[in-house]
Amino acid sequence: MSAKAKRAKKSHKMVARKVQREADVAERALAKTIGGASFKNSEPVDVVVADDTGRVVHGIEHKYMFDNSNHKITMNKYAQVRKLIWEKKNDTTFHTVVESKSGKIFYRRGVGSFRVGAMYEVKGGTKELKGLLDIPDNELPDSAKRTDGKNRIGTWRPIKDGKGYKNSKTGDIAKPKK
Fold first, then answer.
1. d(Cα 154, Cα 165) in Å, to the nearest integer?
2. Are 169 and 151 in contact (CB under 8 A)?
3. pTM, whole model, 2 decimals?
4. Which letter, b or e, does each residue of 140-168 get, where b requires 16 or more Cβ atoms within 10 Å of its Cβ?
5. In this model, does residue 21 exceed pLDDT 70?
6. What is the chain's Cα-based Rg?
7. Which residue has the higher pLDDT, 25 or 41?
8. Is the pLDDT higher at 117 or at 42?
9. Helix segments in the chain, DSSP class H
10. pLDDT tens-digit readout, 73-87
């Protein structure tokens, strides 16, 4: 096991059923507040927001920080790729929103693993968050801008010998966790 994998395993925390229920309630509340709809956990997207015509224009990964002593969120490569494929297929924009138990909201356009302190803190609550969803990439505050450019190169295609994806340009492979 690599040093990075050992550190990740050491900082990993199991989520109790009570905490998962609390996170699900927070996700549904966020979806309702921003005019979106919440999905079950096995989907590549947690919340979608549609425009006035009903076309989905935003996909959101909602992370809930119950007890996060290392102040970071992780998203494995396979999950990131699934979300990027969903974004491209639906011709929409993907966002990552982190909500703390105390009610703080953090935002980053795109997908990835982030140190929460490096994300944009949304001090204006869900009203400001709704505004951030529609801001063009080049007008976002620096800490809210995409950092997933490396995974957006090329096209991700399903691999032939099992579950996963291969990048047409880089040759990278993303498979689900075992």
1. 12
2. no
3. 0.88
4. beeebebbbeebeeeebeeeeeeebbbbe
5. yes
6. 16
7. 25
8. 117
9. 3-11, 17-33, 77-89, 125-134
10. 889 999 999 999 999
Give the C-alpha separation, 49 to 123, whole Å: 21
Record the tokens describing residue 7, joined without a space. 């550190």
Six-digit token string for 60: 């959101």
Residue written as token pair 């790729």: 81
pLDDT, average across residues 46-50: 96
| Tally of residues, the chain | 178
Domains of the chain (ranges plus CATH)? 3-174 (3.40.1350.10)
Burial of 43 (0-12, 13-18, 19+ CB in 10 A): middle
Which residues, in sequence order, are CB contacts of 113 under 8 Å at separation 6+?
A: 72, 73, 74, 75
Give the residue carrying structure tokens 């979106």: 36
* Distance of alpha carbon 108 from alpha carbon 96, whole angstroms: 5
Burial status of residue 61 (CB atoms within 10 A of its CB: 0-12, 13-18, 19 or more): buried
What backbone torsions phi and psi does residue 29 show, to the nearest 5 degrees? -65, -45
Instruction: Give 103-110 contacts, CB < 8 A, sequence gap 24+.
Output: 105/129, 107/132, 107/144, 108/143, 108/144, 108/145, 108/146, 108/147, 109/137, 109/140, 109/144, 109/145, 109/146, 110/146, 110/147, 110/148
